[in-house]
Amino acid sequence: MVDSLTVTPSGELPFAFELRKQIPSELVLKNTTKEKQAFKVKTTAPKKYCVKPNTGIVEPGASLTVTVMMQAHREVPADFEACKDKFLVQATPSGGSTDMAELFARGNENIKETKLRVAYVKSKKPSTVLEEALPPPPANESPAEERVRLQKEVGLLQSRNRALVNDLNMMQKRGGKIVRGFTLLHILLTAILAFILGRYL
């Protein structure tokens, strides 16, 4: 925790991991002083995260929420159990200035820092390919309506199946090496095929 801003959460910035989805997290910065505080948020992996706002001013006694968006993953990260990505929150009295380059220039002894490491956590409501692909059936549908809906669902599942096959083919072309995520995609592909065979054939 910096002396000028209270940063929540502390120590770790959690992300509820899901494949193929952007994952949001939040930092809450609270100014516990009687002066305006400037802040700047940095990360060791700037291409992987979008931080808004990454700089700004927090009024005395006020709080500000910083949204951190992790880019979507096509496969499970190699460092899933112990992510190496880190964030740094810097804070300093603004003194009425809004020039962030000047406020956070090297040599400013008034800059206080808080470090957080990224932590992947399991989603509380994990979604599966089938849950994403198939909407819940409407109540009291007629046999004819059910037949039409099932035909559409089969087409949608077949489309997902083709997409997964393309992903597997791309992975196999990466220098002939087995990459992380192959097993997961294979399981998802098998689940879809089993679902189609069991429900519609």
UniProtKB/TrEMBL annotation:
GO BP terms, alphabetized: endoplasmic reticulum membrane organization; endoplasmic reticulum-plasma membrane tethering
InterPro entries associated with the record: Ig-like_fold, MSP_dom, PapD-like_sf, VAP
Keywords assigned: Membrane, Transmembrane, Transmembrane helix
Transmembrane segments: 178-198
Membrane topology listed for this record: Single-pass type IV membrane protein
Domain MSP, residue spans: 4-121
PROSITE patterns xrefs: MSP
GO cellular component, one term: endoplasmic reticulum membrane
Location of this chain's protein in the cell: Membrane
UniProt family annotation: Belongs to the VAMP-associated protein (VAP) (TC 9.B.17) family.
Protein's UniProt name: MSP domain-containing protein
Organism: Ostreococcus mediterraneus
